[in-house]
Structure formats: structure tokens, C-alpha cells
Amino acid sequence: MANVVWHKNFRILLDLTRDDLDHPEFPGLWDLIYATDRFYGRRGVPVSERDLQCGGVCRDMGVEAPMHLRMRGGRREAVHERREDEERHSVPMSDEHKAYQERILRAAQEGGFGGDSEVRTRVGRTWIQTDTLIEGADGRRIGWEVQLSTIDERGLRGVRARAGKAAKNGITPAWHTDRLAYAQRNDTHWTRSDRLPAHVIARNGDLRIVSGFRVLDFWHCDTGALYPCPHGVRRCGKAHATAKPRDVLFDDMVRQTAAGTIVPIQFRAGKTVHRYWVTNVDRDRLEDLDSDDTRLPPEREDTHATGASRNRPTCQPATAPPTAQDSPPPDDFPATRPLLTALPLQPAAPAAETTPPTLETAPPALTQREAHTPQATDTTTGLPSELITLQQAADAAHLKLQQLDDHSERNLQRQVWLQAAEATQAAVTHYARTKRLNRYEVEARLRRLVRHPAP
Ligand SMILES: [Zn+2]
Ligand SMILES: [Zn+2]
Asked: Which domain range does residue 187 map to?
């Protein structure tokens, strides 16, 4: 038996514990569905070909489990057709799982965040079932799902769909496991701890996340760099990021994801989409690397001037990011804004620190490029020198942004670059319109001219 039934054709979940099945908008729904099911029964229609499936654990695990309805002692009941589906409901939650749920709630509470276990969030006509849901700062909701080695692989069916649905509905999915094979999947942002008994998980002592969290090493692609350029054999002079695994305390992870100071990112490398957690400071800086005039980063609210954010995390992460505590945009789950930067996948740190060029010694892109471009109108492309100068200025501002290490300096420089980029964009639009040219082609020509000047 189960209390929640999925109606295949109506595409709604029915809550049998409620008189109106939790659908006040459809009066008489139970009578209709029960009568229909009885009618199917009398006609000898197999349960699997009728309208109803288990909407509880079975559906959560991506299993289509046919059900039929009956009345027992005046109570409405939905019955699984197959015994194996019924058994899925009776598997008791392991002590380890319960210990994790309690630990998540306790860690969150110590950080000033509330939460609850086994939460059902109404989403339109269906629900999202969350193992442990933490209510974080600024309306942020973190949906913890714990999948331990005590369950079998069937529990992993539909992970991507479930995580995606949660993310789409404002719940940042945080899946945690103690099994290596799960942690290596990249269907969601998995974190992993060592396999531990319940009494250790329940204790207050150190519980470490050993995979799933990374720090980004930002470096400059010059002759002193120890990593190879991800874009080619030669040095490109740009800034790149390399992700390095780093342990983080489980309790910190719970609090900082709620505070928004640890955030999920994803990026594509070849055919694989990699997903892991980083500090919001690293995420912001990666966006600065990844951004472009035509794909400007989202506006960020910088809380530096006004002081700390409303919900400070109670402790700094092991990675000790800079002092910034700025609030990410509410839609900080990256499914909607994938980061496409090609991160090279070296787990090892460089043997020595590479010294980034200071701003004064950095190649003065603007002057260098001016040598290639005449002042009035470029002879090969016919583009006005005003456009060329604007694009050069924007590119120089962007290069400077990518080379800055200091968080607040980057916030200022980002504004400088955004203004320069917007001015360029506006000028390109104006020029294309006046000359009745294709705007996209003008922009592409301009960039080719400025970024790849003919030798
Ligand atoms: Zn079921
Ligand atoms: Zn490079």
C-alpha cells in the first residue's frame, strides 16, 4: 500500500490521506477515479494497463509500479500489483541514513538555519519529496539526498531527473553518499564521505567530505606557468582555472551551502559534464574568466560596502576563501547558466606558485594592438577606428579583470569592463544600423581585427 498515487492520464499525484486527494480544484475526484478503477476491474483490464501507479517511493526511484484501489473498513487504499514494488516501501531506513538526516539538521541549526526531513514540496500538480530540506539564506533551499551503500543500485534510478526537477523548482540538490561508485557519477553534484557506522555519523566530531568539493587554482598562461594551456600548445597569455580536490567538513558543507558560500558548478570537458561544489568566490571568479562581451556575467550584489550578509556562516571553509560574503543571485544553481570554461583536469597542484604579472608589467594589449590598426578606417575591413578603439578598450578591461586576484578589485574592474563592453556593443549596433549592415557580421569582423591582428 501507499498513500500517494500517480494518475498516468491526468498526470497528477493523489494523496489518499486527504478527503479531496489534495485536489480541491477537482470536486468528486475520488468517486470518479474509484468508480473507473472498479469498472476496469469488472471488465478484466489488467492493473498494469489502467491509470494508476505508485506515486511514492517507487515513482521517486523511477519505477513504474501499477496499483489498484480498494476500500477497507471505510478507508481508501491503493495496492501495488507486484510484491517487489510493495517490498520497496517496507525497506526500513538504515540507522546510518537516519544519523545523516539528524546530523544535517543539527549542523544547519547550529548555523542558524532551519530544516526538516522527509519534506514534500507541492509543485503544480505534483510533489517533490526531499530527504532533508534546509532553508538557507535569501530564500535558498538545499535538498539533501543521502544514498548510502546500504541500498542497492535501483535507488539511483532517475537521479538526474529528480535533481533536475528539484533545481527547476528552487531546491538546490545536494546528493551525499559513502560509495565511491556513486560519487564518480556525474548525474548530479555528489559529495562523498568514508563509510562510517551510524554512531560515528551521529557524533559531533569531524565528519569529512572526501570528494565533491574543489578549489579553483587561477593561473596565468605565460612562460612561467606549470600547467599546459588548455587551448593549445603555446602560451596564450590569458588566465585559466584548474580545479583541485579538497576535503571539507560535512557540517561546514551543510551550513555554507545554506549560506550560499559554497555553490554547485558544472562545466563541459569533451563529452562529459563535470559537476562539483566550489566556494562562491571561486565561482564568481570563474565567471569572470568565462564571460564575454556577448555573454555578460549576471549582475552581482556586492555586500562589501554594507557589511556581512544576513546569515554569516558560523565558520570558514577549510579552503579559507577571501573575506567576501557576497550574496549570489537567487538562481545560483548553474543548470540555467552553465559554465563552459574548459577547465584542465589536473588534480595536482603546480610545484611552485606561478607569479601572475602585475598590472603594470602585463602586456599593454591596447598599445600593442594599436600598432596594427590605422587611426581613421581600417583598410582591409573598412571598420571605423572608433569601433576598433572601443573594442580594444573593452578587451583590455576584460584582460585586466581576469588577471586580478583580489575580490573587491575584481568587483570594481568588472564594472569598468561592463561599461566598456556595453559602449562597444552600442556603437556596433549604431554603426550596423546606419550602414544597413548585418550587426552580427560587423561584430565578428571587429573582433577578428582586434583579437587576431594580421602580422
Ligand atoms: Zn510503491
Ligand atoms: Zn592558455
From this structure: 93-356
